Amino acid sequence: MNQLPVVPSASSSKFGMVPNLQHNGIPQGMDLENWQQDPYLHWTFSHVADFLPTAKISRGDGPVAELPENFTDFTSVVVDSPEYGAPTSVGQIMDDTFTDGWAVMVDGELLTENYFGKADANMSHILMSVSKSLVGVVVGALVNQGKLDLSKTIEHYIPELKGCGYEGATIRHILDMRSGIQFSEEYLDPQAEVRLLEQVIGWAPRRDHSLPKTMYGFLASLKKDGEHGGPFRYRSCETDALGWLCEVVSGKKMPQLMSELLWSRIGAENDATIGIDKEGTGMFDGGINASLRDMIRFGSLFLEHGKSLTGEQVVSAGWVADTFAGGSTSRKSFKQSPDDNRMPGGMYRNQCWFPYEGNEVMLCLGIHGQMIYINRRANMVAAKLSSWPLPQNARMLFPTIQAFDAIAEAVGDSDSIPELPLDFAPLDQYTTSMPVIVPDAQVPATPVTPVAPVVPVTPAAPVTPAVPAAPQIPAETIASQGTVVAVDPDSGATTVDWGEGPTTYGGATQ
User: Fold this and answer.
1) Is 414 in the same domain as 448?
2) Active-site annotation holds for 129
3) Which burial class, exposed, middle or buried, applies to 274 when counting CB atoms under 10 A from its CB (0-12, 13-18, 19+)?
4) Least buried of 50, 97, 214, 351, by fewest C-beta within 10 Å?
5) Among 2, 34, 3, residue whose Cα is nearest residue 19
6) CATH number for the domain including 409?
7) Where is the Beta-lactamase-related domain (predicted)?
8) What are phi and psi of 202, to 5 degrees?
């Protein structure tokens, strides 16, 4: 896109300064330098395809997943938010956090759907890093097809990354943002890699002409500043590497692949789009645009064991269980993170956030206030599209989470709580048609010869006390990827050696 003329002009609105539109429909004064800044973002975030190159992620011609409406007013629900210093309300938080639209679904019914300004149900809004969670599900679908082994290194699939900072990082490391790659996520620093990447893909004026000309060239130029498999560090480039990986193993460009594996199967109502560079490569880490209702439909996958509301198995129940369980070191690596995440006891798994110690609440998060909130105990999915003036703002993020927590508490425990991970089924519940989920521990690339069906083994020494139960993983996962050391016949506590020493799980393996 050519740089637009700068003609400063704006008019006030509820959200501050919303720019006037020129005769061509583009806001006066907007250009590549400022389209993500206030006041222009109040228009640009819902009009990305009008000024940046995008590719369509088709919804296909399948049925739309209906969202039965049973509207309830949650705006007066009281929220105890430390950021406010006094009790406030859901409605006040939504007003204060530059909301473009928000919706809540409980037990399959759409209870709330609100839009602000000129937004409506067909609005396609940029998801920013919520895009990462969508890419994570595509990775899961490819694992389920047997096309990806999470224990293999990235250069095994992408030889172009041999010799750069990514060499030696496993797919699991990258999926959970635990590679040692050097990448700054300081959005307000114009020299941070996250901002340099925008120059590469054409989301910002190219000021540094020494930068690679393509997304993939940029990834191959990155250096390493830590050991792979170390603490969690949030880095957008990890998702871009995953997008490249998906294209390599599938032989398809990501817009087509995402349509086939995800968007055409969730019962989406609208096509989605993704921002692309001049080579047609998608901005996988934050460039997807979609409607609010379709965000709800995507989020429902995590309540329905990977099934869409139309009944299609988009990703395996095992992948969803693994996402909620995390790996044996997921929470430890999150705690050790140098990032100021302000989520004590939380974790990051499969491109999704877990803000609390338990596994009931999951988040898909994007800068400037994009969010999908999933609460398994309330059987609830909520979504919010926003236009925060600044990329990151804890005083807006955490009250929003607290508002959805308050709604979940108000509706109470669902009568149809999903069985995973809150209730646990026998180890053999999963069919062998759903491929293995590989834990984050390093395991041999060649699977171990399957063993006979597991039978209780009397331990030679007292069994380690059982830890809290975690979601189940298929029995064939244990057989092919680890070794069962012992199974307590009374408690069901299972001790498994994944290749780095035994770990005991409370009646389930993670």
Assistant:
1) no
2) yes
3) buried
4) 50
5) 34
6) 3.40.710.10
7) 101-394
8) 90, 20
Query: Which residue among 81, 89, 124, 129 is the active-site one?
Result: 129
Residue type, 441: A
Residues 354 and 455 in one domain: no
- Structural domain tally of the chain? 3
Q: Is the pLDDT confidence value at 342 over 90?
A: yes
Average pLDDT in the chain: 84
Domain that holds residue 35: 10-44
In this predicted model, what pLDDT tens digit does every residue of 270-307 receive, in sequence order? 999 999 999 999 999 999 999 999 999 999 999 999 99
Cβ(436)–Cβ(474) below 8 Å: yes
Domain check: are 258 and 336 in the same one? yes
* Cβ-based neighbour number of residue 365 at 10 Å: 22
Q: Output the pTM of the full model.
A: 0.81
DSSP 3-state assignment of 301?
helix
Residue type at 19 in one-letter notation: P
Q: Are 456 and 485 in contact (CB under 8 A)?
A: no
Query: How far apart are the two ends of the chain, measured CA to CA in Å?
Result: 47
State the Cα–Cα distance between residues 389 and 418, nearest whole angstrom. Answer: 37
Nearest to 175 by CA among 318, 302, 327: 327
Please work out, in degrees rounded to the nearest 5, the angle formed at the alpha carbon of residue 189 by the alpha carbons of 186 and 195.
75
**Which token pair is 117?**
């300004």
Give me the pLDDT at residue 1, please. 32
Q: What does the alpha-carbon distance between residue 117 and residue 47 come to, in Å, rounded to a whole number?
A: 14
Distance, CA of 39 to chain centre? 27
Residue 239, in any domain of the structure: yes
CA-CA-CA-CA torsion for 151, 503, 302, 445, nearest 10 degrees? 10
DSSP for 443-483 reads --SSPPPPPSPP--B--SSPPPPPPPP-----HHHHHHH-E
Asked which of 352, 385, 420 is the last residue of a domain, the reply is 420
Give the closest residue to 470 by CA, choosing from 508, 417, 418, 426.
508
Write down the pLDDT at residue 188: 87
Question: Where does the pLDDT of residue 13 fall: very low under 50, low under 70, confident under 90, or very high at 90 and above?
Answer: very low
Beta carbons within 10 angstroms of residue 198's beta carbon: 20
